[in-house]
Design goal:
Number of strands: 0
Shape: globular
Radius of gyration: 15 Å
Distance between the termini: 21 Å
Number of helices: 3
Oligomer: single chain
Number of domains: 1
Helix content: over 70%
Largest sheet: none
């Protein structure tokens, strides 16, 4: 799923020159957006399930994904890491929390 997500982002970028969500205003951009959403949501669900089956349980998984989101927030406010990259990471990390 991760490889498919990366491929969709790469093809989107090569086709349109950006993967900014704010620029989704054409049919082509919207197609890339929804394909990427589909892959990222599926990856997110798999990550949440993996955390549970790895023995973390629901509470442990929630704590793990909350800590990872806190790290993303820290990177956002204290570094110049790509905001687009941080957006997609945060988008993926929030889904397992919704499932619990």
């Amino acid at each position: 799923m991760f490889a498919l997500l990366m491929a969709s982002l790469a093809i989107w970028y090569r086709s349109l020159g950006t993967i900014l969500v704010d620029t989704v205003s054409s049919t082509k951009a919207e197609m890339f957006y929804w394909v990427t959403i589909m892959f990222s949501q599926t990856l997110s669900t798999a990550l949440g399930d993996s955390a549970d089956t790895a023995g973390l349980g629901y509470l442990g998984g929630a704590m793990l994904f909350s800590a990872l989101l806190a790290l993303v927030a820290t990177l956002y406010y204290s570094t110049s890491v790509s905001r687009i990259l941080l957006f997609w990471i945060a988008f993926i990390l929030t889904r397992p929390l919704v499932l619990w």
